[in-house]
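Exercise 7.
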Amino acid sequence: MASTTRIVKVGSVLVGGGHRPPVQTMWKHPLKADSLDAVEDNVRLLAGLGCGILRFSTPDMEQAELLGALAGRVSMPLVADVHFDWRIALRCMDFPIAKIRVNPGNLGEPWKLKEVAAKAADKGVPIRIGVNAGSLPSDLKDEPDRGKAIVVAAEREVAALDALGFNDVIVSMKASGVEETVRANRLFSERHDLPLHIGVTEAGPLVQGCVRSAVALYALLADGIGDTLRVSLSDSPENEVLAGSEIVALASGKRESADIVSCPRCGRAGFDTHAFTERWRDRIYSIRKPVTVAVMGCVVNGPGEARHADIGITGAGDKVMIFRKGEIARTCAPEDADTVFGEELSRL
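Solution. The predicted structure, written as tokens, is:
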């Protein structure tokens, strides 16, 4: 999976050069002054789930000010997503914003890009260029090879910054189709050593979006292409982070957090795996070491089939069993299951 791209520093996170690809997500709502405390708490939750970089849409100066205030309160690198108004990008860089996402071509006059690049260089802030298949320049919209068209559009944006001597750049090229996304990133990686932010844009709701993203991103990562990624879902940031982290773990062959093994449930079920997994999901995935947690619905799938698990839980009749490496460690009543499981989990 190792990439040979140049290294770009995004806050405290190193992107490219073979470093493990950090998982990104995007905040789903406008920031409000009276809810920054809640956002700060949620940023910490996302970090615990494995999020490495968090992007915010920044359409106006009010959002720039609020994002700047938030950036001073959290350690996670925050990214300002700016379009059209170069002054917003300039203002964001007065704060500890880790990266600016901007398309040079939609800022207008070249001198505006020059101002943004000059301040970014002075502040040590990288710029991410983002090209989406749905917003190609007019002369490329009818290009039959959409993957090629995306690359040409990206290369124009890169050239604009290169002409200004600005090289601290990350590039993203996304389409809603898997084949176009994979083709564009493969073509670009053959020509350039810039780190790539990979993802399928507008991938869809949870199930469809996860499948599309997994197919595209695993294929790229397996070829050593991709230095950071986002799974773009019509769903929560938490689910985007969990999906992205799973893809990176599978592509790299190295897991940095807990793995949940749970059965789908059937008529034999003596334990509600669905409800239990939902309650415990975030806490389990916040364990930042490679342990396996099994949630099984009956004794058929319980300790035996999940004997490899570091800890597991299942039920039979009026009893719930907690097991470790296939051996029953404790039994309890169903109403005490969460308490007992929490006690055992804390001992991992």
